[in-house]
Amino acid sequence: MLELRKIYKTFNKGTKHESELFHDFNLKVEKNDFISVIGNNGSGKTSLINIICGSLEIDSGQVILDNEDITNKKDFQRYSKIGRVYQEPSVGTCTDMTVLENMSLADNKGKSYNLTRGIRKNRIEFYKDRLRDLDLDLENKLNVRVGELSGGQRQAMALLMATMTPIEYLILDEHTAALDPKVADIIMKLTEKIVKEKKLTTIMVTHNINYALEYGNRLLMMNQGEIILDEKDEKKNKITAGEILSIY
Amino acid sequence: MDIFIGILEQGMIYAILALGLYITYRILNFPDLTVDGSFPLGAAVTAYLMTNTGDLVATISLGHNPYIICLYALMAGAIAGLVTGIIHVKFNIRDLISGIITMTGLYSINLRIAGSANVPIFNLDTIFSNSTMDMIFPESLLRYKVIIIATIITIATKIILDLYLKTKSGFLLRAVGNNEILVTTLAKDNGNIKILGLVIGNGIVALSGSILMQQQGFFEITMGTGAMVLGLASVIIGINVFKKIKFVKATTSVIFGSIIYKAAMSAAMDIRFARASDMKLITAILFLLILIFSEGKKKKVKVDA
Q: 3-state class of A138 per DSSP?
């Protein structure tokens, strides 16, 4: 379970641009929740996930992950349980390394990066199988530099890489926003499949209202650092795009 | 003919320096000015261990064995890299400034280690000239002795680097230079990996300084001035000349880059009005031209100094 308790966050404190975003913000994420988070620019959705992942410091409050207070843990320490996919496909992969090298790099998460061979030959078939599932012809491009791939191919790889090792939480930061609609659909279907397979507790920030309604069991809508809508399961399923747009 | 031998000798020795810069600049994306201090540091440590007649020095260097002394030079450079890394990572000082701080401090340290600004080592055993080497090389090959030995060391360094970059640790080092955010999401601290890269890079640079000093037969405090620019020029030339040829490894390109650079310098110094003291000016101008004409500059040169 993931919990944010009494979070306070003010940007540009002490300057004339001072603006308070979170004032006593609280959120409980149950195990196996798949939460879609929507809201305007500046509503605090991205700040929310940055606070969870430790890339944004808070003024006060607590971040609790599986009964452990991780408020003072550094970002890289938190990622041992968390996988994250970003909006920009280039952020989730190493563009100067090959497909195979990227897969191997991600496959070693949680283990020691020592002086043994970077590519484990006995895992190549496993990588190929995972890549074949994507149906993007990546299984035949193992030795191609990732920088030469399309945005969709890279994002699919980023998703595979983020979820390759045993993690419990998945953070999706507008991960389909930079893709064309067709590829975005493929990535969303893949996301759902992986989340179900691996039973990941997921938080997905998106601007796409249809995705927010179609995927996940819980919908959060944010506005100016507050949750203005929080519906789960059947209640969530009854919400229509029209209702969302009326309060957006 | 002598000119070609000279170019190859220098090119091969400086290629090791360039391999060190390949790690920090190209792989780690870190403009590391420590190099101007760690290059002469390798030479200073070598001068000290070769000329000091104390028992302790004789013992730790196994009787002034020049090959063992090279390893000490390498370790000293690694420590210099460690210092820059700690300044940058643990105290959040900018990359260029961190290197400048270490480089500045090293100037005094190098003088202390070497004892004076100019230390000759004539008639002492070096990696090029010792009883074993004199035995191995027949009369007919004596002219090429330096080239052969320098080439062996350079290629050995290259092969070790290539192997390292294929390990898990090497993968992570490449990833840090390429995409720090990804490394963070792999639950790894970028900072420690950067420090490791600076340790490796500067160790290699100091090794190069030690070898150059043994080849020229003396240490001088100014030998580090422009070392970073010189090494970078070799890296950029090499990478750009060979980037279209897929089967040539980057480390191989860098070695050829160093030889091409030395040839270009030699040609430039041949201009009638050029004096020996113009070398650094020519180095600077040549480096500028290389940056202007290489396309790679847009992608890799960091200007946030």
A: helix
d(CA A148, CA B203): 34
Residue type, B92: N
What's the CA gap between A235 and A193, in Å, rounded? 23
What is the chain A residue with the closest CA to B181?
A: A91
CATH code: domain of residue A216: 3.40.50.300
**A162 contacts in B (CB within 8 Å)?**
185
Task: Count CB atoms within 10 A of the CB of residue B132.
Answer: 9
Burial of A12 (0-12, 13-18, 19+ CB in 10 A): exposed
Residue A120 lies in a domain: no
Tokens 């640079």 — which residue? B205
Task: Mark the ranges of chain A whose per-residue pLDDT is less than 50.
Answer: none
Residue in chain B lying closest to A76 (CA): B187
- Tell the burial category of A62 from Cβ atoms under 10 Å away from its Cβ (0-12, 13-18, 19+): middle
Please answer whether residues A216 and A204 qualify as being in contact, where contact means their C-beta atoms are separated by less than 8 angstroms.
yes
Size of interface A-B (CB pairs under 8 A): 79
**Mean pLDDT over all residues of chain B?**
92
What are the sequence ranges of the domains in chain B? 2-223
Report the domain count for chain A.
1
| Residue of chain B minimizing CA distance to A105 | B171
Using a CB-CB distance cutoff of 8 angstroms, which residues of chain B are in contact with residue A98? none
Tell me the pLDDT band of B111, cut-offs 50, 70 and 90.
Answer: very high
pLDDT at res. B295 = 57
Are the C-beta atoms of residues B86 and B195 closer than 8 Å to each other?
A: yes
Cα–Cα distance, B60 to B69 (Å, whole number)? 9
Do B175 and A119 make contact, defined as CB atoms within 8 angstroms?
A: no
From A175's Cα to the closest Cα of chain B, the distance in A is 15
ipTM score of complex = 0.93
Q: Is B300's pLDDT higher than 70?
A: no
Q: What confidence tier does B293 reach under pLDDT thresholds 50, 70, 90? A: confident
Residues of chain B contacting A90 with CB distance shorter than 8 Å: 179
User: What would the two tokens of residue B38 be?
Assistant: 């760690």
8 Å CB contact of A94 and B182: yes
pLDDT tens per residue across span B268-292? 888 878 888 888 888 889 889 888 8
pLDDT at B302: 42
Q: Smallest Cβ distance to A76: which of B164, B179, B188?
A: B188
The Cα A91–Cα B189 span in angstroms is 17
Identity of the residue in A92, A95, A118 whose CB atom sits nearest the CB atom of B166 = A118
Q: Which of B18, B8, B17, B6 is nearest to B257 (CA)?
A: B18
What domain range includes position A172? 2-96+151-247
Residue A6 counted as domain residue: yes
- In a domain, residue A114? The reply is no
SS3 readout for A49-93: HHHHHCCCCCCEEEEEECCEECCCCCHHHHCCCEEEECCCHHHHC
Does the residue A112 lie in any domain?
no
Residue entry with tokens 């990572």 = B89
Q: What is the pLDDT of residue B301?
A: 44
